[in-house]
Amino acid sequence: MTDSLNRLHEAVLAIRIAGSGRSRTAKLLQAGRAKMAKKVAEEAAEVVIDAIGGQRDAVVRESADLLYNLVVLWVSIGVRPQDVWSEMGRRERLLGLAEKMPKTRVPSSERRKVISLQKRRISKSR
């Protein structure tokens, strides 16, 4: 998947560098960051609605749309896929693969507790 997102990022970047065009991507880039962010929110909402409805195939399609719009937004703000992969790697080292970073900064002493709880969950499941 990272290869696909990297290729998509490169294609969107090339369209942005070209500066104009009639493609959907060019039009989104020209519309501005607020429009791009709105599209990300719309696609995310569609994923949620389809997931609640148990519509697996629709979730797959809408997730692809969400990723496309997210990459367009990344390009507009100068985020590279590698930036996101690096952050995910950092979080995995701190909290484990399936954990989300807390919204507030957690002191390192607290992080160790979170990591040890994760290890405890894993050992209990075995």
Structural description of this entry:
The chain is mostly helical. It has a domain of 78 residues: Helix Hairpins, CATH 1.10.287. The chain is globular.
Offer a quick outline of the entry:
Helix content is 79%, strand content 0%. The protein is mainly alpha-helical and 126 residues long. The protein has a domain at 2-79: MazG-like (Helix Hairpins), CATH 1.10.287.
Annotate the secondary structure layout.
Layout: H1 2-18, H2 24-31, H3 33-52, H4 56-77, H5 81-95, H6 108-125
Helix pairs in contact: 1-4, 3-4
Tally of DSSP helical segments: 6
Main β sheet profile:
none
**Spans where pLDDT lies below 50 across 5 or more residues:** none
- Number of DSSP E strands: 0
Protein structure class: mainly alpha
CATH topology of the domain at 2-79: Helix Hairpins
pLDDT average, as an integer?
Answer: 85
Task: Give me the strand/helix succession.
Answer: HHHHHH
What is the highest CATH level, the class of the domain at 2-79? Mainly Alpha
Question: Architecture of the domain at 2-79 in CATH?
Answer: Orthogonal Bundle
Gyration radius over CA: 18 Å
Envelope shape: globular
Strand content: under 5%
CATH homologous superfamily assignment of the domain at 2-79:
MazG-like
**Relative helix content:** over 70%
Which terms would index this structure?
126 residues, globular, single chain, 79% helix, mainly alpha, Helix Hairpins, 0% strand, 6 helices
